[in-house]
Amino acid sequence: MTRSLQELGEDRLLAQILPHLKQNSRAVAGAGDDCAVVKFRGAKEWLLLKSDCVVEAIHFVAGRSARVVGWKAMMRALSDFAAMSGVPQFALITLVIAGKKQVVWVRDLYRGLNQAARYFEVAIVGGETSDTDGPTVVVVSVAGFVETDRCVLRCGGKANDDLFVTGKLGGSIRRRHLNFVARIEEARWLTANFKVHAMMDLSDGLGADLPRLARASRLAFSIDERALPVSRGCTVQQAISDGEDYELLFAISRRDRARLERMWRRKFPKLGLTRIGSLHQKSKIKRKTFLRGYVHFRQRR
Q1: Which domains does the chain have, with CATH numbers?
Q2: N or C end of the chain: which has fewer CB within 10 A?
């Protein structure tokens, strides 16, 4: 039976594709995590690779400031580096855009890309451009590194781990998704001071991304919805389902809870850190359905 992408959804589509992708012995983590992780003989660090995109009418509306679009396009890819505790270094930009677009728009787009790249000392070293009759697409591909003992995957969560999120959740519809800063500094601090078992960035919303982290770790999860750090003016449902928060979600031993919370307050006094629940072994007991986050191919902003 032939099915459309809308009927299948992103996660089930990837489940059909990813197992058949060619791998080799140097791939530590391939497609399915926030970044690809590869190793080279003799190197002290692992290489991180990430490609991400923003699409007109999906990730930004026509008429939006091109500088803001460029900032978001770069920060989206850098947010995935934060999820792995990585250090981004180089970026390639692929721009697919209609020939009738004004040159000033493209200049402003690259102004935004450059500003976001400079924030983390990333060099833009090349890319590609192509004409199109369709919407504008900006693809950002980033390369960098992570120390072998500080790389955090989604699959390392352990039963009884505490689940934490940084910042506030919800509010992408109020343009929070356009001016965020990737949590690279916070992720690097975390892995320098604690053993983080699993981590990812919340790009599709807690309702989509938390189940992915738990599934990768072969565990279940429970959360206290009353504890969620909800953005001002948002509901709990929006905090779970809006998507594009670009905050960190991570799992850490409950033994580290008190020390983590105490040290975090001293290091990041202006950024909240909230324990929202825990990971646990799967149970045959049927639990209530968790609200969903953003699902590609099934909905439009």
Answers
A1: 5-147 (3.30.1330.10), 154-280 (3.90.650.10)
A2: N
